Amino acid sequence: MQKTILLVLKALALLLLINFLIGFLNFRFDLTEDQRYTLSEPAIAATEKFESPVLIDVLLEGTLPSEFAKLKVEVGEILAAYALANTNIKIDFVDPLKGVTSINKTIAELESLGLKGASITSEDNGKVSQEVVFPWAIVNYENKSVRVPLLKNKIGATAEQRVSNSVQHLEYAFADAFTKIGIQEKKKVAVIKGNGELDDIFMADYLSSIRDYYNIGAITLDSVASNPQQTLNQLRTYDLALIAKPTQAFSDAEKYVLDQFIVHGGKTMWLIDKVAMELDSLRNPEGRSLALQRDLNLTDFFFKYGIRINPVLVNDLYFTQIVLADEEGPNAQYNPLPWLYNPMVFSRNNHAINTNTEALRLQFANTIDTLPNGNKKTILYYSSPLSKAEGVPRQISLDIIGNPPKKETYTDGNNPLAVLIEGNFNSAFVNRVKPIPLEGAIENGTFNKMLVVADGDIIKNQIRQGRPLELGYDKWTNNSYGNKEFLVNSINYLLDDTGLINIRTKKIAIPFLDQKKVSAQKTKWQLITVGLPVVLVFLFGLFFHSIRKKKYGS
To answer: Residue 170: which of 39, 330, 337, 19 has the closest Cα?
Structure first.
């Protein structure tokens, strides 16, 4: 008997020693099928620069609905992987509503800081309750702080689908935050002016969002007429040119300056409207206006890179709404109404830029043809299968709201709306007379990237009381769309040298319990999980007692 006790004590001592030693070892095993807790090399590289503590406050603590409890566990696991990569990363889960005297006031304060709460309705044993959860983390390093959204919203998604989408996004979300907070030297983005582009206030939210990554400046192409070389030299100090909804034609000299910027390696993001039409132009007594082709003198320019933007309007049965008053005066009621010229387009998740993104809202969009050449063209967004392209000139009238469209006429859908072009870009002026002389002009460039979207309003945020609202948010319908995330992802991809954006393509599957089955089989599983162990212990006791009785006779 003493030998048995001694053997057991030695075994326990050995286990304690092994556990003690493992505590000093910096490793763990990822046994998940999709390797969700194994960080990619770019994600690990994003943490290498930190030589002092990085404090991460995760606002997921306390009593949480089951889906968010799952999200909390997944956040903890992915952050543990980051902490393993750099021991300076410290994690703290906090309940932002714990111990507060006024919950509503605290919620308002959090939302004023940009930490929007998620209202969750849950049901347990027939009881319905509503809770507010703040699915956010805050990464703090030295004197900088970055907010990290943990919840990915998608139109029509269930709570489980939202959490699953969110978990897939976690590795990139934190790697992105570490990159922003630790960035030392920012790349430069030039906002092109001089051809009737959008005013800054209509791009304010987007420019504010990318300011964490990049330095932003303005380049006016008007100066090309007087000093083209100086304009090109200035432009070449930037890494990317953003051309957002120009309304005036580009001269050949301006195109040549942009062409040489591109051939020398400059990235470009083109947000183009080939048709002149605005919703505001319909707010007249007749409620109609004429849509006309807008000549930007860019057809030959884009043709060289393998695309053509068509002077048509996309009419789509997958649409977003507009809001109109039913009458004039103080008693007017504002009603959301279908608007076929505002397509709602969904990602096909075929690229790191558009993987797991919310639907976009476009306004009077055009279509893009891709043309054969040596460049790779990835179509990031299409119109829906139930859409059609309408040529211009065409009269657009608010009367279409009251006339149901004929579904059988929507036969030529799936039109490209946004195209990523990659390849060795050659000059659009090869074998052509050059409009102006430029020093160091070349005709054959190296590998480059360009994004073209056939809608200039994709970047346009709304205004309330003179202040810009978040890009993608519609103040009239209170809906939010994925415009900002798409455009931020796009510029990150165009300028990303580390491959960080490619983390977004990682696929993760999160299993959830079937709540209907749980409710229906609750008693059965309670008996199995609670009653069965008791029965087994009782049977083991009887068996042990019978063995003892046979051996000792009592």
So the answer is: 39
The pLDDT tens digits of the residues spanning 220-253 come to 999 999 999 999 999 999 999 999 999 999 999 9
User: Beta strand 307-310 with 394-397: parallel, antiparallel or unpaired?
Assistant: unpaired
Q: Please report, as a single letter, which amino acid is at residue 3.
A: K
126 pLDDT above the threshold of 80: no
Output the six-digit token pair for 180: 């922003």
Close Cβ partners of 447 (under 8 Å, ≥ 6 residues apart) = 422, 423, 424
**What pLDDT digit, counting tens, does each position of 33-62 carry?**
555 667 888 888 888 889 899 999 999 888
Please, which residues have CB within 8 angstroms of residue 274's CB and are 6 or more apart in sequence?
A: 293, 294, 296, 309, 310, 311, 312, 366, 454
Cα 266 to Cα 278: distance, rounded to the nearest angstrom: 31
Where do we find the tokens 């900088």? 144
Assess contact for 8 and 481: CB atoms under 8 A. no
- Which of the 8 DSSP states describes residue 345? E
463-464 and 467-468 beta bridge pairing: antiparallel
Q: Within 13 Å, how many C-alpha atoms sit on residue 361's CB side?
A: 20
State the residue for tokens 């192409």.
221
pTM of the model: 0.81
Q: Which H helix or E strand runs over 146? A: strand 144-149
SS3 252: helix
CB burial class (10 A; 0-12, 13-18, 19+) of residue 536?
exposed
